[in-house]
Amino acid sequence: MRNRILAGLGVAALATVGLAAPATALSSTTADIWVVHAVPGVTVDVYINGNLALDGFTPGSVEPLVDVPADNYVVDIVPDATPSADTITPGTGLFGTGAAGVDVAAGVSYTLVAHPSESVDGNPLLLSPFVNDLDPVGAGEASVTVRHTANAPEVNVVVAPSTPVFSGLQNTDEQTGAVAAGTYNLQVQVAAGGAVAIDLPGTVLAAGTHYFIHAFGPAGNPAAYSPIIFTIGDAPAGVPAGSAGLVAENGVNPALFAGGAVLLALLAGAGVLVARRQTVKA
Amino acid sequence: MSSRSTSVVVLALVGLLLLSGCAASADPADGRERGAVEYDPFRSARTDDFVSSTDTLTTVKSAPTQLVVGALGIDMRIDTKALEPNGDMSLPVSPFRAGWYEYAAAPNSPKGATVLAAHVDSLAEGKGPFAELRTVQPGTEVSLVDSAGVTHTYIVSTVERITKGEVPWGRYFSLAGDPRLVLITCGGEYDPGYNGGVGRYTDNYIVTAEKVS
Predict the structure, then answer these.
(1) By C-alpha distance, which of B57, B67, B148 is closest to B100?
(2) How far apart are the CA of B141 and the nearest CA of chain A, in angstroms?
(3) Which of A15, A26, A170, B125 sits a CA distance of 20 to 30 A from B22?
(4) CA end-to-end span of chain A, whole Å?
């Protein structure tokens, strides 16, 4: 009896040190790519390696492509056609990665943003890749990433009216920071003069959540800027949701065998075990 | 005296055993073919195009507090849970309570998956209600009550059994896509020798239900 309990003790000690957590919830062989359409006024088709991937992708939209095998991809953006061609010659779109493509590594979360440049007319259009920072933010904090992907000059991000969050963001720049979970009156302000470009009163930033905010515009009449947002939560490495083997589908009820000592300890309680052991000693 | 303190330690470690019995998600695949999900990211992802909305930034999550699956006789209270230090989802110790993962969506979120998980069993309390999930049929109605007293209704669309280590957790714990409910527990074969005798189930059962109201 004593030996079995000691054996159980060793097992339990192993259990506490033997569980390793993967660094990321992403697959070790694939990537995720979030495609963001921040070009105002034009619905597009997105081709990957010449094959139609997103048909009729509207401005302001976000599309997550998950479990994308690690590789080099040529991405082309073309104005939406009806019907859209199933294939085009890679590298011949209106804009995109060009024939050189973009390298996609396993275990990484990316964003590809189609957006205007800062020039007077917003041309050339750009397809900018970003790596999504998914380092776990933990209890009580949120992660905020702001990307300047609008046809606009340098901006600052503040908690209204003027507490700085991020400063000096230019077209194609991004900044990331952790903030306490809570509700904020966020604003994007033009650096020169402080005009409010995007007003986000009552923004709720939840714990364990990564916010990716993309500046979009100008669009509409009067010309306005807006955010394109997606969020990714901290994901667990696993869900250990059983412990006794009572509903095993291999017909074994191992709790009665391997777990016998444990079960007995539970049912008998410490007092009985102490008594037995003392009896043995005596 | 030394005997008594040893026994106290034993009981404390028994508690640890109960918590970690079906643990460890990161071991390599064991070669069985079930669980591998064929998925073409470029062809099939398009079902879920979404236009960004500032709703994402203005919703205060209402935690779910009660889960009812009438067809399975499930009526459980729900605790709010997050992560264990080792990165696994934290679960209520009792298989008769479900855990809501607070870093994914809530029932009132405009997008994403509300994720609940519960132990399928425990040595202390036996088989729990989530043991019935493996039998659920597509079309079954599931309801959640949230902390504001609002009832949310879902219809089961898929039941999956996936080998641990092959589950793409990021896809299930997603804040993107149509609002839905994901219920997770353990199942499959039991491997009593896993991790030096701790033991665990080899698979996860994952039920997905689409929100209808």
Answers:
(1) B67
(2) 23
(3) A26
(4) 15
Tell me the two tokens of residue B158: 């898929």
**ipTM value:** 0.77
Give the span between the Cα atoms of B1 and B46, in whole angstroms.
67
- Shortest distance between the Cα of A260 and any Cα of chain B, in A, equals 10
Q: Looking at the partner chain, which of A206, A237, A265 has a beta carbon nearest the beta carbon of B11?
A: A265
Q: Is the peptide bond before A222 cis (omega within 30 degrees of 0)?
A: yes
pLDDT of A106 > 90? The answer is: yes
* Subunit contact A18:B195, Cβ cutoff 8 A: yes
Mention every residue, 6+ apart, whose C-beta is less than 8 A from residue B162. B34, B35, B37, B203, B204, B206
Are B50 and B111 in contact, with CB atoms under 8 Å apart? yes
**Per-residue tokens: A242:** 């059983």
Q: Do A236 and B57 touch (CB under 8 A)?
A: no
Say if pTM beats, i.e. exceeds, 0.90. no
Probe site for chain A from B2, B53, B54 (most A CB atoms < 10 A): B54
- Selecting from B20, B41, B52 the residue whose C-beta is nearest the C-beta of A65 gives B41
| DSSP bridge partners of B69 | B74
